[in-house]
């Protein structure tokens, strides 16, 4: 074992042991620290540069064995110039934060760490149009790809693809379920454009303050579809839309709507049917760190078929809260 010590009285500590400690602390992670860190945006008045937001990143060393990891923090915004394209064609550029440590043998860097920084925002011009990562052997993090049309000097937001990844993203799994409903609750009698809670229940969920996205997996299982529930008006089909609501006060997020369409095959037999909603939904800042009401909702079409929530129906919503990069304005 190489003799090296950290935080030991009377012992010298090398830069390498500090970097290796950071590697251990971050489990060899590579990425931004907080969701809004180092976001790349157009200038306030779009021009020939882009701006990189304040924030921090950890970069896992790629140029040497046991190199360790580096921590960099951009204090304030920094503008990075982008070369214009000419009439010869468009171009894709990769904007990265790169560590250029001259103390690592075999690297081309010639900075003097006593007077120069070793962390730089760099543009790699002419990358493939589907590039999402830094080049192999580079100690750095990819921030954005800029896809520039032909004969263009002004960079606008629609040309910028966010490539940031979290260093150590947090997740939390929540599940709410209920089996059996008494009295029977019918779906389809409340019709578009109106919505009802179906089944008629409300759960509460604590949304983590760090969560910027929720993945929703909701299921209405074993719902009853019976001829005897026909309203007597229009088709006997049971049709409508489904969605999931998370609401706190006046703030609410909704999933993309799903749809159901069940067709009667017999005028005497009943059926058990299933529906689901799957979606990824961004969580706005006003709904982070609050207790929200979770509801399953339906809106019936103008047909006569009805679905019933009864003793045999199961209802459940699975929520995966994620910490993913977001815009600083979110």
Essential attributes:
single chain, 330 residues, mainly beta, Triple-stranded beta-helix, Jelly Rolls, 2 domains, six-stranded antiparallel sheet, four-stranded antiparallel sheet, 3% helix, elongated
Present the secondary structure layout.
Layout: H1 15-25, E1 31-32, E2 40-42, E3 49-52, E4 55-60, E5 69-74, E6 78-81, E7 91-99, E8 119-124, E9 140-148, E10 160-162, E11 171-179, E12 185-187, E13 196-197, E14 203-206, E15 213-225, E16 238-248, E17 251-254, E18 258-262, E19 271-282, E20 291-300, E21 307-309, E22 314-322
Antiparallel strand pairs: 1-4, 2-3, 3-6, 4-5, 7-8, 7-9, 9-10, 11-22, 12-21, 13-20, 14-20, 15-19, 15-22, 16-17, 16-18, 16-20
How does this structure look, described?
The protein is mainly beta. It folds into 2 domains: 15-162, Triple-stranded beta-helix (Sandwich); 171-322, Jelly Rolls (Sandwich). Helices cover 3% and strands 42% of the residues. The chain has 1 helix and 22 strands. The chain has one helix spanning 15-25; strands at residues 31-32, 40-42, 49-52, 55-60, 69-74, 78-81, 91-99, 119-124, 140-148, 160-162, 171-179, 185-187, 196-197, 203-206, 213-225, 238-248, 251-254, 258-262, 271-282, 291-300, 307-309, 314-322. The protein is elongated. It starts with 14 loop residues before the first helix and ends in an 8-residue tail after the last strand.
